[in-house]
Amino acid sequence: MVFAQVRTCYDIQYTTAVPANSPYANQAVTVQGIVVAPVFYTGTSTTNYGFVISDPEGGPWRGLLVFTNRYFPELGDLVEVAGTVSEYYEFTELTSLSSYTVLSQGNPLPPVTVIPTSALGSTVGEQWESCMVKVENVTIASTPSSYNEFNVNDGSGPAQIDDQCFPRSGFTWPAMTIGQVWASIQGVVDWSFSYYGINPRNTTTDVVIVDSVQNASLRVQTVTAELNESINVPILTSRLKPAWGVSSYTAEIGIDPSKLEFIGLSIDECITNQMPPTPTISEDGTLITITYASQEPIISTTDDTPLIKLIFKPTQYGESTISIESFRYDNNTISSLTSGKVKVPIRESIAWLNLGTATSTKNIFDPALNEKLIIEYGAKTANSGINARVFVRIYDSKGVLVATPVNKVLTSALGIETYVYDGRDSNMKLLPVGVYYCSLEIVDRETGKKEKTVQPVVIRTTMK
Predict the structure, then answer these.
(1) 90-103 confidence digits (pLDDT tens)
(2) Taking 70 as the threshold, does the pLDDT of residue 458 lie above it?
(3) Cis peptide before 257, with omega less than 30 degrees from 0?
(4) Per DSSP, what are the bridge partners of residue 443?
(5) Do 431 and 315 reside in the same domain of the chain?
(6) 19 preceded by cis ω (within 30°)?
(7) Has residue 1 been placed in a domain?
(8) d(Cα 229, Cα 48) in Å, to the nearest integer?
(9) CATH number of the domain residue 61 falls in
C-alpha cells in the first residue's frame, strides 16, 4: 500500500514565484495542521464554509484555508485532510476534500505573530495569507463599510480589518470613531479584491480596545484524556504587563463532578510561581475556588500563557465542560472568560450507551410535556481502526420495534454522539406510558463484527 506524503502548510504556501501561486496548485495533496479559525460565507449566511489550519510553530507561510461545508472541527483540533490545492482569485485554498481525520484535540494554538500594519501591503502580504497575526496600538483610519470592513494604521501604513470569521447574522463591530487608538487586533489573514485583511475570530480576546488588566482574558484549554487517568488542564491567560503590578487572583471553576474527579493543582511551566492554598470545593462538588497571592508580580509576555493547571481524573466517556464562572486579577473583575472541555474518546471494542434528560441522569421522561430523552451513544472510531455504523432502536415491553431514531455512520472523533429523542414512534405518534428498551447496535462496516447493549426507558405521566 502506498501512502501519500503528508505536507505542511508551509509546503503548500511557500513560493518565490510571480504571481505567488502555490507550487502544488491543481494537485492532490494531504496536509496536517491545527485548526485556528472558522470561516463563513459572505452575504447573510451563518453557514460555516471552511476552517483555517496552521503549522504548530506559526509564522509566515504557515497557514491554509480548507474550503468545505461538510466538516466542523474545533479550535485546537489537529486534522489531516486530503484535497486539491486551488488558487481562488489568487488566494490559496484546499478544496474538493477526499478525506478528513481528527488526529487529536485540545492542542495548544500556534503562537500569533505581531506584525506592523504595513506588512499587509499588496506586494508583501502574501507570506501572511491564512496566518494568525496581530497588530498593536493602531489608529482607526476608517469606519466599517457596507461590507463591514474598516482600516487601521500603526503609523507604518494601512491594514484592512474584515469579518470573514463571524457569522453574518447579527454581527456588528464595537463602536469606533476615526482617530481612536485600539490596543490590538488579531486574526487570520485573507486576500480579497486586491487587499489583505485581518479577520478576528471574536471581539473579546481578538479585539482589545484598551490595554489594561481589566481587558485581560482567560480560557480553559480543551484537552483529550483517557478514562480514569489523571490529566492536566491549563488555564491560559492573555499577556500581563509588569506595569500592571498584578500579584493575586481568585478563580471560581465550574465542573460536573459526575464526570470529572478533581485531584488538585499544578504550577509546572506556569507563571504562578508558588503553589496556592488548597482550593475550596462547594458542597455539591460543582464549584472549585482558587485563591492566590504573591509578593512577586505575575507577568506574561505573550498571550495564551499557562497561569495554573487543574488536575482531573475523568470518570466517564465523552465531553465534560470546565467553565470559569468568575475571575479577578487583584480587585479587577475579568469578563472575557472562555470555557474548555475534557474529551475522553472510547478506546474499547464496546457499544456505549448513556441515557438521561436535560435535568436528570435518570432514563425517565414525559413526552406529553415536551420532555426529551438524551441518548448518548458511541464506540471506537475510525481513528482507532473501526469504521462503524450505528443503530439506535426503541422497543416496547413485548419486544416490538417502535422507532429507529439513529441509523448512521459514526463520524465523531471521540466516538461519541448525541441524539435527542422526543418519545415518538415511527409514525410520529407519542408513545403511551410504559416501559421501553433502548437498543444500541454497532456494526464494523469492514468486518461485520457487532457490539450491542440495551437499557430500559420509562415513559411516565405527570400526576396532576
Answers:
(1) 899 999 999 888 88
(2) yes
(3) no
(4) 389, 450
(5) no
(6) yes
(7) no
(8) 35
(9) 2.40.50.140
- Residues of the domain holding 279: 218-344
The answer to whether the CB of 355 falls within 8 A of the CB of 363 is yes
| Cβ atoms of 120 and 159 closer than 8 Å | yes
Provide the Cα torsion 61, 66, 72, 74; round to 10°: -10
The pLDDT tens digits of the residues spanning 158-176 come to 999 999 998 866 789 999 9
DSSP 117: G
- pTM of the predicted protein model: 0.77
The number of domains in the chain is: 4
Q: Cell triple for residue 249? A: 487572583
- CA–CA separation, 199 vs 164, rounded Å? 6
Instruction: Give the DSSP H or E segment for 284.
Output: none
Cβ atoms < 10 Å from Cβ of 139: 16
Residue 220 and residue 237 in contact, taking contact as beta carbons nearer than 8 Å: no
240: which DSSP letter?
A: B
- With 0-12 CB in 10 A as exposed, 13-18 as middle and 19+ as buried, what is 462? exposed
Other beta carbons within 10 angstroms of residue 108's beta carbon come to 13
Tell me how far apart the alpha carbons of residues 381 and 101 are, in angstroms, rounded to a whole number: 10
Query: Which amino acid is located at 119 in the chain?
Result: A
Residue 101, amino acid: T
The per-residue pLDDT for range 345-403, each reduced to its tens digit, is 888 888 999 999 988 888 999 999 999 999 999 887 644 445 788 999 999 999 999 99
